[in-house]
Amino acid sequence: MTSPSWLAGLWESLRGAFQQRAVKFGLLGSVLLVAGSLSPAYLPRVSPLTRFMASLGFDGPISKTVGTVFTMVGLALLMEFWLRIRPARREAQGLPQLRHWAVLVIVGTPMLVAPPIFSHDAYSYAAQGWLLHNNLNPYLVGPGLLPGQFADQVAWVWRDTPAPYGPLALRMSHWLIELVGLDPYWSAVIMRVPALIGVGLIGWCTPRIARRFGINPAAASWFVLTNPILIIDFIGGAHNDSLMTGLMVLGIWVTLQQRTWLWGGAIIGVAAAIKQPAFLAAVALPFLLVPWTSWRPRDVVNAAGRALLSLGISVAVFAALSLATGLGFGWTNAVNVPGMVDTVSPFTVLGHLIQYPVNLLGLDPGGRTVIRTLRSLGLVVAAIGIVWIAVKHLGRRPLHFVSWSFLLFAFCAPAIHSWYVLWGGVLFPVTRPRTKVLRTAIVVTGVLLGYAAMNFALRNGAWLLALLLMWTLWESVRAHELNQNWEDEAPQESLVRS
């Protein structure tokens, strides 16, 4: 295909997607979400946008309410858009199928120059890069050691904590802030560059991996690429989880293409140098090519040896990058940092429910013993569960192991964030989920969006609007999914059939 015809094909895909009403819903939702992110209750006080909005008179209670309304409507539209463009629904209505990469480009574009959305992590990345620029090790000190706008942009709870991220992620943050001339605001915005690379890798690899396993690539792309959580957290939030996840699926795709897991293991090592959980995928790579099907001692030893060798390659690449960046292995000082905040992690919530009466009875002088115990129990459950998933799936269905293990860890860890769910979510379609499981995943997507909305609304003192959004999300899911007559026990048709 010549360049002009290739470009014409791209343009036709974009034009065809934009002509669809549902895609326009998504674009409008994205625009409203960006507008809502300019709320004075959500921007850092030192942000130039805060001062700019104040100069326009948008710094009072009314502007907070308007910003919250924009955000809630935007979230509702993004959920409605996602459900409306589902391939099975469009097929049933006789509508043409869409190029989901084109849909993602259209809906994600408004977020490219917006401030970080629904998270201040990008400000932390920038501040950690600023520490490196000043010859300080982010594994040893927090951003607050250098007072100024970089530190002031960081959420207070992370201001004095060391960085938990991989060494390559920190060094990339250093390079990126220098690229924008050390401007604190644009240093945070440019953190979208590696996130967008990750999204691009996910968009390229996910449908191709799905096709290799007999899954409808269009349906896989719909579930992953146009998922509101991916759009909001990976593009809007600029989380480094995006690049980690993108490199992880690239390692899987290279393994399938090259018929060797050596290069895939090396790529997983690079992914782990962004964020360490990627190591989990390394043990699955050998079984993509040669399944483990027998429990005879010789076969078990052989399988364990292959898994450990693949993991060893990833660890060696990770270690080399740790030394090359000059940061070493200081991230071990911060492995507990993500759990320092309370979220809706199931075991944390359960801990609070039990802790409350314990505190009323005066049985716990420290006031958090039950919460800490339940969080530790969650990690034990995750470890046992991952071993069980490995026994059940690793040898024959290695991507089932990767997806379900990541999802289990995300929900059992001391802290849960919606972007953690995407670690395993990008491979979820390859697990061939049955209808009930797919419906549950869609409902969970709505719940996580509702939780993000509630956090935002509470900052703006408008929690009633968040409750209204939750009701709207539920009605949207109920209308599009729960009232449909799918066969409950059959594999979801839109994922299995092409």
Name the beta content range: under 5%
Can you give the mean pLDDT? 90
Largest sheet: none
Could you tell me the number of beta strands?
0
Keywords: Glycosyltransferase, Membrane, Transferase, Transmembrane, Transmembrane helix
Protein name: DUF2029 domain-containing protein
Pfam families: MptA_B_family (PF26314)
Family: Belongs to the MptA/B family.
Verbal overview:
With 498 residues, the protein is mainly α. It has two domains: 399 residues, no CATH class; 73 residues, no CATH class. 67% of the residues lie in helices and 0% in strands. It has 25 helices and no strands. Helix 4 runs parallel beside helix 24 and helix 23 runs antiparallel to helix 24. The two termini are 25 Å apart. 51% of the residues are buried. About 2% of the residues have low confidence.
